Amino acid sequence: MDLHIRLDGRGTLTGQIYQQIRDGVLSGRLRAGEALPPTRVLAARSDFNPVRPAGSPPLPAGSLICEYGVRWQVYDSRWHAFVVGTNSSNSIYHTWQGSGGGSYGPWVSLGGTGRSGVSTLPYNNSSGGLALEIAVVGLSGVRYCKNYNGNVGGGWWPGQTSWTSNGASCRLF
Questions:
Q1: Judgement on whether residues 13 and 42 belong to the same structural domain of the protein
Q2: What is the C-alpha separation between 165 and 37, in angstroms, rounded?
Q3: How confident is the model at residue 38 (pLDDT cuts 50, 70, 90)?
């Protein structure tokens, strides 16, 4: 079964999960009576995963708290954590492990504004290098994304604090 829950910030967490499972059954993507994956598997495939992965060090002091939870992603052999902050603009923040599975660095602002959890998607770019896309629903309801590729260009595209809503540039749309 292929089930991925996307949180959009509308309604309660429970209500959004229920509605998406119901829609999956009604559309035929999910068969009535089909068993759902275990909670840990579902959390790993969803935009909301509040549980720190086993073996991952604690997040940095002053950790940000948000109702959307922490999105965990392994990229470049290290754990990365993404959150929508509780500041007045709901900016997106990122922290990652040091090399060799070390402790996390400080939270870094990626700009933007969010009203959903952060979605992540590692992929191979056109040069065959590893890249990472992140996406969030903005306060206006529009989906935004940005991509990181440390192998080509060495940073975030379209910029450290810039995002794009161009669906042709976003794999998660």
A1: yes
A2: 31
A3: low
pTM over 0.85: no
pLDDT digit string, tens, across residues 4-30: 666 555 655 566 677 777 887 888 878
Check pLDDT > 70 for residue 111: yes
Into how many domains does the chain fold?
A: 2
Same domain (yes/no): 39, 87: no
Q: Return all residues near 27 (Cβ < 8 A) that are at least 6 apart.
A: none
Judgement on whether residues 75 and 155 belong to the same structural domain of the protein: yes
- Give ∠ CA 103-161-72 in degrees, rounded to 5: 40
Cβ 68 vs Cβ 118: under 8 Å:
yes
What's the token pair of residue 140? 């206006």
Same domain membership, residue 87 and residue 25: no
Sheet order of strands, 119-124 included: 119-124, 130-137, 143-149, 155-157
Q: Is residue 22 within a helix (H) or strand (E), and if so which, with residue range?
A: helix 13-27
Q: Phi, psi at residue 8, to the nearest 5°?
A: -115, 5
Q: Are residues 25 and 56 in the same domain?
A: no
Amino acid at position 50, single letter: P
User: What domain range is 31 assigned to?
Assistant: 1-46
